[in-house]
Amino acid sequence: MDWQSESPELWAFLGSLHRGEILSGAVATIERFGVFVALDDGPEHPVFPGVGFITVPELSWRRFEAASDIVQIGQRVSCAFLQFDTWNAEARLSLRATQPDPFPAFVQCTAPGEELQGKVTKLAPFGFFVQVADGIEGLVPFPERSSTSTEAPAPEGFVQVGDDVTVIVTEVDRERRRLTFSQRQGTPDR
């Protein structure tokens, strides 16, 4: 669809927005891939339930299972404008950009070797994730495979989601916003 000729008012509105500008509206629809927002200012979208769209990663700094864990239909939101999506003629928005990022403050006072308490949040074939503060998670990777092992250990054999565990910080990657933990720092691999 040629949005520019089909909906010149929409095209002009979206073209007038600036990165970082705060836009308000109401959550119109929640999909598995994101959230449509009916913006207070600007025209209606001719196809979608809202001119604004928030992708799942832009909803929150913390881990969640479904978009409905963060927002509800009809809820009023204020979001930062990220970009004009010319393909879909929509304003890409970020809800999390309007909230403080907990990661920089956390890693400011956290160093490798520090022992932390946390809760297992997710199991994966390569390890498990542990939440050590609100919005702060890290990975406890499984040890590298030994030369005699053909399969990585199953995470269920070590921990379950919801278990309280003690972990040791082994790596802080500020650039990629990642923490790596160990449960047995300094213990030789078996």
UniProtKB/TrEMBL annotation:
The keyword Ribosomal protein applies. It holds the Pfam family S1. SUPFAM superfamilies: Nucleic acid-binding proteins (SSF50249). Keywords: Ribonucleoprotein, Ribosomal protein. Residues 20-96, 113-184 form the S1 motif domain. The keyword rRNA processing does not apply. Belongs to the bacterial ribosomal protein bS1 family. This is S1 RNA-binding domain-containing protein. The lineage of its organism: Bacteria, Bacillati, Actinomycetota, Actinomycetes, Kitasatosporales.
